[in-house]
Amino acid sequence: MSNPLPKRIIKETARLVSDPVPGITAVPNEENLRHFQVEIQGPSESPYAGGLFKLELYLPEDYPMEPPKVRFLTKIYHPNIDRLGRICLDVLKNNWSPALQIRTILLSIQALLASPNPHDPLANDVAKEWLDNESAALQKAKECTEKYAK
Amino acid sequence: MSKVPRSFRLLEELEKGEKGGSQACSYGLADGDDITMTNWNGTILGAPNCVHANRIYFVSITCGPNYPDEPPHIKFVSKINLDCVDQTTGDVKPEALHILQNWKRSHTMEDILLELRKEMITPNNKKLPQPAEGSTF
Amino acid sequence: MGNVPGRLEEGSNGSVRSRTRSNSNLSISSSNDTLNSRSRRNSNQYSAANTTNTYSNNGIINSNNNNKNNTNKNNTNNNTNNPGTSSHSKSLGSRRHSHTAASPIATTYNASSVGRQRRAGSLVGSLLASTQHAFGGGAGSSPTTPSSMTMTMSSASSNGATPTRSRASSIFSSSAFFDNPYRKRSTRERQKCKEEHYKGLVVRYDEVVDGGYLAPYGVHDDEHKLDYNENVVKKLIIERKLQPFYLPLDDYEPEWNDTELLKWVRSLTLHQPYSAYVEKYEDLPGIEGLSVKELENSENIEKYLDSSLSKTERKIQRSQIFTARLYKRKILWQQYETDFFLNEKLKIDSAKKSKFGEPVDGKTQSQAQSLSFRCESWVPNDKLMLDLYRNGTECPICFLYYPGPFNISRCCEQPICTECFVQIKRKDPHIPAHENNENNEIDEIDEDDDNKNNNDVNENASTNTSKRRDSSAQEEETDQNGTLISEPTSCPYCATPNFGVVYTPPPFYRRCGINSVLPGEYKGQNIVSAKSATPTSAAASATASATASAASTLATENSAIDSPCVSSTGVSDVILEEAEDGNSAFVSQIARRGSLPAHHESVVTSDAIRPDWEVKLNKARERQKKKYLKATTIHLNNRLVSATELARLEDEMLDKAIKMSLSSNGNGTAANH
Known about the structure:
Chain A: Residues 4-150 form the UBC core domain. Chain A: Keywords: ATP-binding, Nucleotide-binding, Transferase, Ubl conjugation pathway. The complex is a heterotrimer of chains A (150), B (137) and C (673). Chain A is α+β, with helices and mostly antiparallel strands. Chain A has a single domain (7-148), classed as Ubiquitin Conjugating Enzyme (Roll), CATH 3.10.110.10. Chain A is built from four helices and four strands; from the N terminus they run H-E-E-E-E-H-H-H. The longest helix of chain A has 15 residues, at 134-148. The longest helix of chain B is centred in the first third of the chain and has 14 residues, at 6-19. Chain B is 24% helix and 17% strand. The N and C termini of chain B lie far apart (41 Å). A four-stranded antiparallel β-sheet of chain C has the order 9-8-10-13. Chain C is 44% helix and 6% strand. Among the domains of chain C are: 18-209 and 249-385, no CATH class; 614-672, no CATH class. The A-C interface holds A 1-4, 6-8, 11-12, 61-62, 64-65, 82-83, 86, 88, 90-91, 93-95, 97-99, 117, 119-120, 122-125 and C 219-222, 225, 250, 273, 275, 277, 396-400, 414, 420, 423-424, 433, 457, 460-467, 469, 490, 492-493, 495, 666-669, 672.
């Protein structure tokens, strides 16, 4: 009934398995090979260090001409990630390019954990805290990681 | 065609709802912290040129784990007298509403709300006496 | 010659060699189909249900058509052909009509011996015949319109005037049909236009350039992204300014021997299989169980419409039915071409057998025999297939393997296949997201600008926000300045604005198809030039699977040995001679360093293949303006009628909506927008 999976998705999936990215795993759902369960380790030198964050990723019909859809399933205190796990990241929106891949997108998300950008927030309350009192915000992020990501 | 998973489908609907798709209805998450996005609130603006005109009806929508493969559960919070609404609980009877009975994966919550609005002006329903505005089930 | 399948004596004009094929007019259904006017199908020997055309041999004799004598000769030949052509064209409509009534069998046998020969031994023969009949019937059902008649005629005459270009020009549907792009078109006109576009996307087995095709294989089969101008792209491919649509291999292993490689290549069909089931077309009336003829008749849509729907809803349904039917017809059109393609392959196989004898013990013919076999056919022969697929690359975007040379991005010199290139288009007109987003208007770049652009991209990265935020910000801005914008596409690799590619055609010996030798008669290059140093051959072989940019370096390095022939466009073909074993490897690359500006004559930009972007933008602006004016008017009128009631209601709605939104989002995110 459904179209065969495009070769690109098959190859990307195989390469994610054969040549995994350190600190990141992505496993496709058996019933829907475009839907991936993702785990990202919190970068060291960040309040998320030591945490393991679950995400889900979906490759829409037009992929790679359209970006993958990604969201956090693990609760996280971060100015660019909202309470539903939605991520504000340019390469997931306007700056998507078909030359990018699942691999590069997940690396970008990992980099976003290492360097939050409170000037372009998605979670306004978190961003405000981040700007007003950064040490308190970092502490909250650590606590949140302890509580939900371990 | 690939199947959009439940969560991304609900996020799509949420974004459309936030943008304000149709002027005749609105919908949003009941609990903005609920990562499963199960419970939703909706409003329907009463159909024009009938007793419902200018009324606003509140409904609650429950999207189960199998949404959108299965239709959501709809319940009127505001009292309304329609053939497809259980008059004691406010539940919309799936067998009495075409869109729920013939559910397709491509249907959305907005489709249901608009269909309910259309129900208000079917010949059967048009003549039904309506409870006072603002009363709830 | 007599043994060559598909050859036609009748109607061929004296010394003019003729090629025949069953008229694919049938596949594209109606006589007012402008594609019908392709010159190679110009003299209709038979009527609609099974028309066989002669294809006058313009430009096929010599790959180099610039030869003046040659051109003149063709010209003469063509003129002698022309009277016949015209009369055939004229009688097309009426002849078709007469065949509408014919039964499938009668129609089939109305063909000449060649027609029968073609069908003989075909696995798909019966299917083909039935498809032909179905399409033929459809053709008869739609009477020829005056406009299409004119197009057919004009094509025939232009055939005589410019023989070397005739084939190319006649492939295109008339673009003059819609003079003013801003003119409001009727539904019928718009449907016609869409139909023509879909027809243009059908991969025709005999529209071959250098072993590739003029329409996409369907790697990204999304109708919204295939909205490029198919005539422009076909023209660019024929002019060898864009890589043809080669049939992709899923994988390629350099270790494969020729037999293995040929096995994979031979299993390719013209188009990726279509999904027969499309959810959005499900449950639409007036689709299932209809004959092709009924599907083609958009007049009968009316009777399937749901009468309980409102006028607007009916209009929507009407257009949905039309689109769903068009999808179905597109599948059938492609099926017809594919069947013909497969049929040709079978004929070639049996011709090989008769020439070399039956394969013993199931073994295929020896490689040498197979490679030397050539026949008059549009199906590429083994030699061509090897020359093509031994020199391919995986496209970095679709991950599929295509023969080279590739299109190369004008900015960062990265390869991209045409299949992916045509997908890259401007976003729909939208309101500017940020005022500081200024890199949109940059038209040209040079190497210094490259760095600047990269900085811009980085800046963008930090200033970009989610779509959701943008859209709410946009709504405010709409009311203030209200100007929609459309940004040029960016390079997928380096994000340089105004994406464009450069294509360097293969060397002359590797050219075939339109305006060159038939793909079935391809010889390639067997003479080893003394000039070619042995190390060069080795190096060239090694690059067989390397990327084109790597090849570019090689070409530059070797350009001292091979004297490049510089053409008028400043493009040089650097040909590295091949090794004797038939493993030909060549490298051809533009002699350039660094990037080229978007307006450079050899650059094909995204905008060039969607020239209507500006019209679309202006129309969107116009619509937006109207919408705004209308909204204001309604607003005012309502206030005059029942100002207080409406105001109360609006306030209440707003109030409740805000409350709901607040309760659902708490102190969080979306409430502020």
